Amino acid sequence: MTESVDQPTHLSKVKHIVLVLSGKGGVGKSTVTTELALSLVEEGKRVGVLDIDLTGPSVPRMFGLENHQVHQASTGWVPVYTNESKSLAVMSLGFLLQNKDDAVVWRGPKKTAMIKQFLEDVAWGDIDYLLIDTPPGTSDEHIAVVENLRDYNPDGAVIVTTPQAVALADVRKELNFCHKTKIPILGVVENMSGFICPYCTECSDIFSKGGGEAMAKEFNVDFLGRVPIDPTLTALIEAEGGTFSTRFTQSGIYPIFKDITKMVMSKCGDIS
Ligand SMILES: Nc1ncnc2c1ncn2[C@@H]1O[C@H](COP(=O)(O)OP(=O)(O)OP(=O)(O)O)[C@@H](O)[C@H]1O
Ligand code: SF4
User: Where does [4Fe-4S] cluster bind (predicted)?
Assistant: First the structure.
């Protein structure tokens, strides 16, 4: 990311900005965002995660931070930190709601204003990566984020899909959105591609496979990797207690995400 703003802002101190997109809900966008963030921290990076899924903010739950709140300081909103070294900061509307079950029923202009505020006012500090977890589709939130990031040249988008054709059709729209808005596509992740047996760790293809890779080829974008369904991960996410990093390292998809992360870093010009 090159800095092209005159006045230093919170975002101008961020080295790389990566959006995580999917055409369809529930394909694992927040899971991919979380695992990428944890893996980047493992690589020694300072990372911020911004959850702009305003109507269904799931990032606090993914990080086991559901009962945390953000507070205002003179520098702006202070995000929630997940570990003592302050290398992973998280911001989500979920931290601003009085009750985690509160429904957010907002019209477009209010959502747009909230996203502008998130992008302008969160004091991330000198972070290496800001990962932005978006809602599914191409909605008001996407347009707001793209417009507000225009001066900051985001590095690009990671597109998450599942192997089935119905999800792939939605992702095609997402790829077209990136082309239209000139957001570079860093690559496609095919999530829920096969199933890791919890008893024998064998991976079986329960749906068709390879759809994400074929689509990446068709659109001439990079294929970042295939991530199977790992029931251990689901159990670890649902479990109360434990640390976010043990959840990550105990999951069978940990090594896959290490590779995906290295590819994303390389696409961002961060490693040779
Ligand atoms: N590879 C995987 N292995 C096991 N469980 C997974 C995997 N990917 C996602 N999940 C689980 O599937 C559910 C949906 O995932 P997630 O919330 O990441 O999807 P999403 O695309 O962000 O959804 P939304 O549309 O609500 O934003 C979660 O419970 C998550 O733990
Ligand atoms: S995948 Fe095969 S080995 Fe593993 S539990 Fe199922 S049937 Fe048994």
Answer: 197, 200
- Please report the atom of ligand 2 found closest to the CA of residue 201: 4
pLDDT digits (tens, 9 = 90+) for 101-134: 666 667 777 888 889 999 999 999 999 999 999 9
Q: Is the ipTM of this complex over 0.90?
A: yes
Tell me how many domains the chain contains: 1
Mutate to test the pocket of ligand 2, among 199, 201, 230 (most ligand atoms within 8 A of CB): 199
Structure tokens of 170? 């939605």
CB 257 within 8 A of CB 35: yes
Please tell me if the CB atom of residue 167 comes closer than 6 angstroms to any atom of ligand 1: no
Say if 68 falls within a structural domain. yes
Q: Is 156 within a domain?
A: yes
Residue with tokens 């709601």, as numbered in its chain: 97
The answer to whether residue 46 sits within a structural domain is: yes
Q: Which domain holds residue 31?
A: 11-267
23 annotated among ligand-binding-site residues: yes
